[in-house]
Amino acid sequence: MSASVNKSEEQVILEVRDLDVFYGQKQAIHSVSMQIKKGTVAALIGPSGCGKSTFLRSLNRMNDFVGTAKVTGDVLYKGQNLYGKKVDPVELRSQIGMVFQKPNPFPKSIYKNITWGPKVNGFDGDTDLLVEKSLKRASLWDEVKDRLHDSAFDLSGGQQQRLCIARAIAMNPDVILMDEPCSALDPRSTQGIEDLISELKRRYTIIIVTHNMQQAGRISDETYFFHEGHLVEFGETKQIFTNPSKKKTEDYITGRFG
Q1: 100, burial (CB in 10 Å: exposed 0-12, middle 13-18, buried 19+)
Q2: Taking the CA atoms of the chain, what radius of gyration do you get in angstroms?
Q3: I need a surface site. Which of 30, 123, 252, 254 has the fewest CB within 10 A?
Q4: What domains can be seen in the chain, in order of their start residue?
Q5: How many Cα atoms sit within 13 Å of 174 on the Cβ side?
Q6: pTM for the complete prediction?
């Protein structure tokens, strides 16, 4: 019994306990608790304004940048509370990276987009190898290997988003957070990002916010349904989409609201 408990604990990379998030007097997240297992793709779904992105940003302390934000509760990463006084948020974000809704490459070359973060954090290895490895893992190398010193802004929207994923990968994270990474992309680029996520989960844990129910069904292992700041229901994606236990979940998935 004890061995199986230990094995289960090893699989959990993030554990959230009674998380509340406030913006001033307004409460955006209400007492959310969950566990995210290593090597899974977890989809956060729910209508606009339900707290999905706020919750996502809580997982690597991006809400620290919002002056009115207050977070209570615990977020444990490999057993350590991310909101502990000794935690360096900059170092944390190298382990739990973020890819935003709109591609946001740095105003630098493709090459420097990859190397800038690692260098700032003390990387002294082979930068050429780092760039090649990161771009290959983001399925972008073959498209840009002959133009590494061109501006990142010369890339298409889909390529820019994959570059942002490569930039996160270059930091050697355990977890990659994605906040609607396909919402600004055309269908072909969206397909490319979805295929990439399926590949990346072999190495990383991915937590993605999406409004696209079909996308959540295609790419995620587990789904978490938020409504008005509450985590209503969660479970294996197939179960959530075919046999949800809460009527509110069923109503959202079947398009009755949202």
Answers
A1: middle
A2: 18
A3: 254
A4: 2-253 (3.40.50.300)
A5: 14
A6: 0.92
